[in-house]
Specification:
Helices cover about 30% and strands about 15% of the residues. The chain is globular, with a radius of gyration of 22 Å. Helix 3 packs parallel to helix 4. The protein has about 300 residues and is an alpha/beta fold. It has a 7-stranded parallel β-sheet with strand order 3-2-1-4-5-6-7. Strands 8-9 form a two-stranded parallel sheet. It has 7 helices and 9 strands, in the order βαββααβαββαβαβαβ. The chain folds into 2 domains: about 180 residues, 3-Layer(aba) Sandwich (Rossmann fold); about 80 residues, no CATH class.
Length: about 300
């Protein structure tokens, strides 16, 4: 027997749930999952910021913060963008910083409206794990689940992971050398995509297209040869520049990955200045973050080249 359910789905604080912002992986998952649930006949209460472009008779959008709140909290005075900042220009929403006023407002409104609309058999869907735990703790719905775990910091009783790798990593981190019993109700559900956005070609050309952050765990090492890793890339750099960058990149990837694991970030490194006063390749940095983050965490050496 088919049964329709009700889901309370938490969006992000700093972005509206629209196609326009789907280059953010979390926003994309929230946007797609909302539409999939609605198309299956379920009811969705979507808690977000500003607005959503999803329209459906079974959708109830709850505005927990406004675009003005975003501009006030994170805007940099750039009025070309409705958010007040250029999302593609290096902005990074750091969830490790102290809770912001906008996030406090979002959480309070989400808690208020979930408690107004909830019933015991409703689902609470968390898009960012422990980051949204305070909301979950204050609405007390048993059926709370994380629906797309590709991050550290998951905690819910019911969890769907994006890959077997992150599932095994999570279980091993939480229970090192303990019971081999897992959770039979957890699932691996790979990230979904819209097939209508892609054209199938049964006669592919002879090249490898890689989409993702340029870090090891995203699978970049599966390229046929290390020297071919950056053969195709969305960059305006010259062939000579990219040839040299490949050499530098393969030298420092493992060291930086170890620093990340240890949460140790050296405050001085020559590699940030390898290309001169301002590195030309910061947008391809192994951290996958913007220039501002590097400027805040590294002292850039004015001397070109050199060792660690």
């Amino acid at each position: 027997m088919n049964k329709n359910f009700t889901f309370h789905l938490l969006g992000l604080v700093h972005l509206p749930v629209t196609k326009k912002y789907c280059h953010c992986a979390f926003t994309q998952k929230v946007h797609k999952l909302t539409r999939m649930l609605l198309n299956k006949g379920h009811t969705v209460f979507l808690y977000g910021t500003g607005y959503t472009d999803i329209e459906h008779k079974n959708l109830h959008f709850i505005q927990c913060a406004t675009i003005s709140d975003i501009r006030k909290e994170w805007g940099q005075g750039d009025n070309r963008y409705e958010l007040g900042y250029n999302l593609a220009g290096g902005f990074r929403h750091d969830i490790n910083k102290p809770i912001s006023e906008t996030r406090k407002k979002f959480n309070a409104n989400a808690i208020k409206h979930i408690n107004l609309n909830k019933k015991p058999d409703h689902f609470l869907l968390l898009s960012q794990g422990s980051y949204q735990k305070s909301i979950a703790d204050n609405v007390d719905l048993y059926l709370k689940a994380e629906f797309g775990i590709g991050y550290r910091g998951s905690y819910a009783k019911f969890r769907a992971f994006e890959s077997s790798y992150i599932q095994n990593f999570t279980y091993g981190s939480e229970n090192p050398r303990q019971s081999i019993n897992g959770r039979y109700y957890d699932r691996v559900i790979p990230n979904y995509f819209e097939k209508d956005l892609f054209t199938f070609n049964n006669k592919p050309e002879d090249y490898l297209c890689y989409l993702g952050r340029i870090i090891e765990r995203k699978g970049i090492s599966t390229a046929m040869k290390p020297k071919d890793r950056f053969q195709r890339f969305p960059s305006s750099r010259t062939d000579a520049e990219m040839d040299q960058f490949r050499k530098v990149f393969t030298d420092w990837t493992d060291d930086i990955e170890r620093d990340v694991e240890k949460n140790y970030f050296p405050m001085k490194t020559n590699y940030c200045s390898y290309w001169g006063k301002k590195c030309k390749f910061w947008e391809l940095c192994v951290y996958g973050v913007g220039e501002k983050y590097i400027e805040q965490n590294f002292i850039v050496d004015e001397t070109k080249g050199g060792g660690k």
